[in-house]
Amino acid sequence: MADQTPRTTGDVLEKTRHELKDPEQWRVLLLNDDYTPMDFVVEVLETIFVKSPSEAYRVMMQVHTQGSGLAGIYAHEVAETKVATVVDLAQEAGYPLQAAMEKA
Ligand code: TYC
What we know:
alpha+beta, CATH 3.30.1390.10, three-stranded antiparallel β-sheet
């Protein structure tokens, strides 16, 4: 229909402008618990958050002693995927490890 052309074009332009904006950044935090083994948390930090062994150990100890710690900062969709992956891996292994995200 003739009246669909302007509306479709407008939608495409709007989307293009939106995607050009800098994506909002989100902090992904790991949360402490009494049951998840330290080695498992270090492995999560190395594999999912691409930390070096020494940095992974430092962040794990920060979580262990302070209650939470910064695992990384990402665009919203990436942060959501990281949180879900942490929780899935922990559940598969039978651990209660939790991750959270907050706007940076
Ligand atoms: N507190 C846990 C222990 O003593 C270790 C741990 C560290 C758990 C970091 C979770 O995000 C975490 N085994």
